[in-house]
Every structure is written in C-alpha cells, then in structure tokens.
Write a structure and sequence with these properties.
The complex is a heterodimer of chains A (460) and B (555).
Chain A lengths: L2 E4 L5 E2 L6 H9 L5 E6 L2 H15 L6 E2 L4 H6 L2 H15 L3 E6 L1 H6 L3 H11 L8 E4 L8 H16 L10 E9 L5 H13 L3 E4 L3 H4 L18 H5 L4 E7 L4 H11 L3 E4 L5 H15 L5 H21 L3 E5 L2 H13 L3 E7 L13 E4 L2 H10 L4 E4 L4 H7 L3 E3 L17 H23 L23
Parallel strand pairs in A: 1-13, 3-4, 3-5, 5-6, 7-8, 7-9, 9-10, 11-12, 11-14, 12-13, 14-15
Chain B lengths: L3 H9 L5 H4 L3 H6 L15 H9 L6 E5 L2 H5 L19 E2 L4 H6 L2 H15 L4 E5 L1 H6 L3 H12 L3 E5 L7 H15 L13 E7 L10 H7 L2 E7 L4 H5 L6 E4 L2 H15 L3 E3 L5 H17 L5 H22 L2 H4 L3 E5 L4 H11 L3 E6 L5 H11 L5 E2 L4 H9 L5 E4 L4 H6 L4 E3 L10 H16 L3 H6 L11 H18 L1 H10 L1 E3 L4 E2 H11 L4 H8 L9 H19 L1
Parallel strand pairs in B: 1-2, 1-3, 3-4, 5-6, 5-7, 7-8, 9-10, 9-12, 10-11, 12-13
Antiparallel strand pairs in B: 14-15
Helix pairs in contact in B: 4-10, 7-9, 10-13, 14-15, 15-21, 17-18, 25-26, 25-27
The chains are: A alpha/beta (460), B alpha/beta (555).
Chain lengths: 460, 555
Amino acid sequence: MAIVTTSKKACSVNPLKMSQPIGGSFAFMGLRGAMPLLHGSQGCTSFGLTLFVRHFKEAVPMQTTAMSEVATVLGGYENVEQAILNIYNRTKPEIIGINSTGVTETKGDDVEGFIRLIRQKHPHLEKFPLVYVATPDFKDAFQDGWEKTVARMVEVLVDPVEAAAVRDPARVNVLPGCHLTPGDLDELRTIFEDFGLKPAFLPDLAGSLDGHIPDEFTPTTIGGIGVDEIATMGQAAWTIAIGAQMQRAAEAMQKRAGVPFRLFERLCGLIPNDEFIAFLSEISGRPVPAKYRRQRGQLADAMLDAHFHIGGRKLAIGAEPDLLFDLSSMLHEMGAEVAVAVTTTVSPVLERVRTQEVLIGDLEDLEELAKARDCDLLITHSHGRQAASRLKIPFYRAGFPMFDRLCAGHQLSVGYRGTRDLIFDLANLVIADREANHQPTPDTWRTTDSGLQVVPPQLH
Amino acid sequence: MSSLSATIQDVFNEPGCGKNANKTEAERKKGCTKQLQPGGAAGGCAFDGAKIALQPFTDVAHLVHGPIACEGNSWDNRGSASSGSDLWRRSFTTDMNETDIVFGGEKRLYKAIKEVIDKYDPPAIFVYQTCVPAMIGDDINAVCKAAATKFGKPVIPVNSPGFVGPKNLGNKLAGEALLEHVIGTEEPDYTTPYDINIIGEYNLSGEFWQIKPLLDELGIRILSCISGDGKYRELAYSHRAKAAMMVCSKAMINVARKMEERYGIPYFEGSFYGIQDSSDSLREIARLLIERGAPAELMDRTEAVIAREEAKAWAAIERFKPRFKDKKVLLITGGVKSWSVVAALQEAGLEIVGTSVKKSTKEDKERIKELMGQDAHMIEDMTPREMYKMLKDARADIMLSGGKSQFVALKAAMPWLDINQERCHGYMGYIGMVKLMEEIEKALYNPMWAQLRKPAPWDDAGVNWQSKAMAQMDAQAAEIAADPVRAEEARRARKICFCKTVDLGTVEDAIAAHGLSTVDGVKEHTNASGGCGACKGRIEDVLAARSAPMLQAAE
C-alpha cells in the first residue's frame, strides 16, 4: 500500500502534468470526422496542437474560439457560435467536440446554454452532434479531461436501450484509457477479433492517429468511430473498460443502456493478460487460439531472459495514474524496485502502486527523489530527458508527450506480445547503459575500502 | 509603471512599424485589432510570443503565472542553445488551482518566486502573466515589485495574457518589459569601440555560433544578444553598445527603435541567411561601428574575411548546382525568412515557384520583388489543399516550411525540410548555407520517394488516395463555378483589399464594367488599394487571371 502525498510547493518546476482540456480534445480525436474545439484563447489550442503534432507526427485537427480580451470579459457566446458555424460550413465535420479552458471557466461561460441558443438560432444545427465538456485548466489533469469527455460522449451520443432488450452477444464496447496508444488499440482489436467478437472502441484513436495515409483529404479526423456507431453501442453484450479512469464512462454506459461492464485496470504483464484472455474466452464461448498460447510462452521466456537486467534495478517513474499503475506493477513483478513514483492527479489506483509513497508532483520532484534514492532507470514522458541526462541514467520514454523519438503512436504495452516487447526494450536500455557508462576498469573495485567486492550478477 | 492597455497602445503606435507608417492618426489609435476568426484561426497567443522572445535568456528563471495549460503544454518546445547556464531549459509555473482562482493567485506567485530564488538563485526572474490571473485581477507588477524589494533581486513582470492578441504582439510586449525594467539598469565593466547588440536572434540549434567565430575574429564583441544565448547582466548593460543589428523586425522592432531613441544606438535590419545577406550584414556592422568611432581599418579586415568566406562557400555550393538543375521549391514560411531564404536558395540555382508572405511586412514583400522580379508569386494565404495541389501538379519538387504543414508534403510523398523553429540543423551564415543545400539534396534524392509513390501491387493505380483527393478538389471547384449563387457568394467572401474592405466580386465587376487593365484603374473605380497598398499584388493577379483567356483567344 502506497501513501499518496501532494507536493506542497507553490512553484511547479518542470511540470509532469498537462492540462485537462487537451486531454478532452484528445478523446474527440478518436471519433470519425470530428473537430475538437477549445473554448479559450488561441494559445490554449495552439500549445496542445503543437504537442499532438510533435507526438504523433500527424496532421491534427483542433480549433479555437479565439477569445479576445473583450470577448473574454463580456462572454464568449458570439465566438462559440461563429466557431461552430465556421467549422460546420468549412470542414463539414460529423461532430464538434467542445472543451472549456481556464479562461472561459474563470469567466463562467455557460456553454451548454450557448449551445441551446445556437441550436435555436440555427435550426439546421438542431440535430448536429455538439458535445460539450467542462474542463477547466486549473483543475485536474490530462487524464481527467479524457475521462470526463468519454463519459460525456456516452451520455450524449449513445441511444438509450431497455435493460431487458435483446443484445448482440458478439458485440463488445471497449473503453480504452488515454494511456493506450493507437498501436495498443490495434493489438486489442486483433485479440477481440480472434475470439470472433466485434469490438467498438470509444474513442478509437487507432482509426485516426495511427499514421496511415488517408483515402480522403480531410481537415477533420481521418478515422475513428462514427457517431452513428456510437449511437448503437447500447446494443452490445458487454462493455470492457481498460484503466481505472474508464470506470466513469463504463458506469454511464450501464446506466444509459444497461450494458454490463468489466473493468481491467491494467493490461501490461502476464497475469492481467491471463485474466483478460480468459474473460474473452468466457464471453465468446471460444477456446483460446493457439496464437495466444504461443505468445504467452514467449512472454514467459522474455521475463526469464530480462530479469537478470531488470531485477534489483531502482526505478523512478513519472506518469499519469493509470500508466504509472500499469508500468510500475509490471516492473515490480519483474523484480524491480519502484523507488520513486510521481503522478499528476488523484486516482483510486495510486494507493495500490507497489511502492512506499506516490507523490502528486512535478519532474523536479521526480529528479530530486531519483537522485536522493540513487535510481538507475528513469521512466517518464519526453520532458524527463533533461533530468535523465543530469542524473546520467538511462531513460525510457512512456506516456504523452513523446516528441523527441519516433513511433510514439505504435509503442506497445498491452497483450502478451506488447508486454514482451516492452520488457526487451527496457532490458536493452539497461544493457546499453552499462556498456556505455559502467564498463569496469582496473580501478573499478580499488577505490572502495570494504575489501572484497562481489561481481555484479549481470556481468557473469 | 504603465498599464497593460497603455503598453499595447504604445506598441501599436510603433513608428518603426511598416504597417503603421501608412495609417492615419485615427487608424493608428485603433491598433492592429483585427479580430481573430473563431473556428478559423491558427497560431499562438500573446503569452506564447512573449515566452518565445525571452526564453532564450539562459541564466534567467522563467516563471509562468497561470494554470497548467500555459506552461505544462508548451515548455521545452524550442531548441535555443546556451554556452553556459541551462536554467532557461527548466520550466517554472505556479500551476494555479481552483482555490487560487477564487481567492487570488498573488500569494502563490510570491511564494513561487521565493522558492525559485531559494533553490536556483538566478540573477533575475521573469514572471509571465497569462489569461486566468489577468482576469481575476492578480497584479503581477505589484507582486514582482514586492518580491524584488524583499529578495534584492530583479523580478521582471512580463504582461502578456494570451487573449490580448496574437503571438507577434506578445513578442513586442516582451520587448516592452525589457525596455521598462531591464535595459539600462547595470553598467558593463568596460566598453570597446567594437560593442554591438544583436536583437531578435534566438540562437535556435545554436546556429548563431555559425557566425560568432567571424565576429570574434574581427574583434567585434557582442555586448548583448537579445535573446539567444543571452545573459541577464549583458541585457541590463546593453544600452552601452555602439550599434545594433536587428534580425527579426516583426518581433523586436520596438526594442531596436527605442534603444536608438533613448541611448543613441543606431541599428539596421539584416539577416545571416544566405551568402549575400551574411556579407551585407557584416559590412553593415563594420560601417556602423566605424561611424560610432571604431578605426576605419575594421572595414578592410571585414572585407578580407568576407572575401575568404564567400570563396569557400561558393566553392562548396558549386557541386550542388548540377543536382539542383530544374528543381523547384515551394517555400511556406513567414516574416523575414520569406525573403532571406529566397536569396539563399537562388544562390544555389534552385527555382522558387512560390513563397508565402502571410506574416511578411510591406518591406519584406518589396525585398522579395527585388529578388524574384515583379512577377514573384507571393502566396497570401494558402490552404493545405492548395499547397498539396501545387506539389502534386509538380510545380514544386520540395517544400520548405515549419513543422505544422509538413504533412501536406509528406503525405503527398514529397520531400520536405523544416526551416522553422523546431529544425535540428543550423542554416546561418556561410557554413549554414552549405548545410542547407546538403539537407535539400539529401531530401530530394532519397530513393525512398520513388518507392513511396508506387501504389501497392493490389491497388488499382488510377484510384489511389492522391487521385481521389485531386478529384475531390476539382469537383468542389466545378460545383461552385456551376452554381451561380455559390459562385457569387465565394466572390463576395474573398477580400482583396483589407484596409477598405473591397471583395473580389467588386473588383472583377469594375474591371468588366469599365474595361480596366491597370491597378490604378481599379483603385479609381473601387476604392481598393487606397490604404496600405498590400493588395496591389492581389489586384495584379486578378487582372492577369482575367486577361489570360482573352490572350489565348487572340492567339
């Protein structure tokens, strides 16, 4: 059981956290033909947009209500109206997803009211999907923005179904957390399909941000789940939520359409995947395909090979709660010691992270604690690169943003195969660091005064 | 201390600004208050601009007062280089929460300043104001003043809430903060007749170091670089420089001009992109220094260095010329780069099919005309779709642009090179020019492109996504042309002259009704082109478009 503490600092140094509105926009990017719209000043959108572009190396649709000083003070009705009309007329989206920001929340703009007015004034928008989520910057973090937005999508876009209605046993709703990459979603889709299930992902970033070259030239998202498909999600037999953050959306689905759900808090590691695969076998009534039996064997072998390198390592991890829980649990199971864990926002999983203390803090905290506790591997998003180079320890990039390496969209951590690859990557990092920085010399053992030194196990 | 609105007004009144010079007194008062278009706007806010302009000061702590979005989403996204302190790379923000919004964030800000001083002891702290604390009335000027008195350290307020305007305004607000609070507050240990300031240079990818060795060789001392690889103390005594070079007029003209006004430091606008420009700038620096009392022999030494470096660069570039024969470039960038890079590319024998002038001043455009001739294809505002078509129609072989439009090229399987803020290579001076050519050559001749352009074996070659996109575009244009109502709407929606709000329809109708063939004729009948004159090129385009079919008919 970890104790969760919050940093007492007034000044956040090298933030780990990113804002809630762009977490919301990120969720909208998993819908087909969507235009995420931030109700705020231009920078609110521009900064997020730059992050997404640098992370995915993709064209990313995102718009702003471009609040001016006067509009900010007087209220942004006209800006919201104009933004919606402009986007509607120019880019012909299938849905506009609106998130508020710190500016417009501080003013207290009633965007739900705005939308009602806009629909009255422009009858052609009466049925047009406009989903609004309140996501002030000054509260919560990226993951919360995603959580609230997906839950809201369910509440607004899913058609209600009687609890007793006949359901399609092959249909499964999948609600993935924001810590899963497009590559993770593709992996999961394959697994579901191998069991004869028809999964519908909400949101489906794999359709829009997996780097494929589009069939059509479009200013909105190029893939993802369609609004029409979301409407029928209530007819599915099961909802599978991945990551604790998706509990809220899964409950919303159950409330609205009576779909039972099962929450998998993590899908990285051997045991969680055993549970997951067994559950799929159960709901589909099919045996586990030979493919996954082989993959399980491979993962087991990978763990054997890698434990020489990962075992005993002291890790410092900085990540949003679900990703932190996912990675730290797997690495703990590999014999690593989670010496430092820093996160961005509260979550029920935090106290179950296998470490002494989880700190809600920044990358300065991560760096200082990692230094104080002599960690030898740093795991966080790309902003941790400076800390890692100052600490002179190997650095594994995980989470968002990952702007200084390629492949962010395809990094895999779910399933037997994803876990296997992740383990190899981490182990290889440790090996490379040793070769580059810790080669023994005739003096390596001479400077200590404790007499006999044991050769580190990895050198055997 | 002046209020934010007074500062903004002051910035708008900038006499050095090309746009302002053509305005009446009344128009100037209104400032550049062009309303940004909700749902159709792009680019950063004033805070973004202020941060970009000041962040390259390397030993300063940059503290952002606001909720997490402003700094959490934006930090560590530009690669200036430092020869000393790396404090600028650390990010500091008050990360305001709900309680701060309700009760005010001033106390948190004060405590944050204290923490930063306790932990990092920087020579100064720059405190950036963002939208939310500005709205709730946090007085950062007062907090900074109190903290400065208490801790005995300069704490500089940078009033730049995002909603006051675009990035460019933020650049200038940053400059105002320097002028008001920093420049002239300290004295250098000694001065020389060879002291210059470089203004508006950010040392991205360390590229200014491609030039600095030449200045060192000439004995010219950079007293202060504002702001690339800059240090606080150097900035504070920069008023003792003998002359200044302004690298980016759009960002920092107010700093250069006011330093001339207050301290008598003459400046010129120059560029180190391109061989000719680099030489011109070196000459100009020498000339100004000599004017201010440096020995005349400086010019001879400068000419010697220029001759040597140019010869070396030309020799190095010569080998690219056959590789670049008949190769065409589409340049999508803005401001000073739209002409300085044009010069550079032409030097290597590349043909430039178009350059974007979206963010360029009237002077920038004049320079482009000087370089590319009167028929220069200047692109005012191009949609990604249009850029794509341009590449696809093989009117260009490579696109040079910033990171955000790269996918237009890459998804069209066309070579692309980053020449904006996130680039990894320095392209400055004589060495940088050769480096740019190397990178262009690598991109153009990568064998990967040929493979990427081939359809998959199972695909029908005629119906790939590219051809679909083109068909979609043509269909849309045809649809608009066929529908008289929509065609009329489109004609009326497209503004030609922004000062006098004259649309395309009005101009075309006037041309047809009066048989006009010159810009002056159009001006007489429509009121267009009476303001800043920037629309002259657009009117010429309209005239050319109308006469082309007639010429064909005549043949």
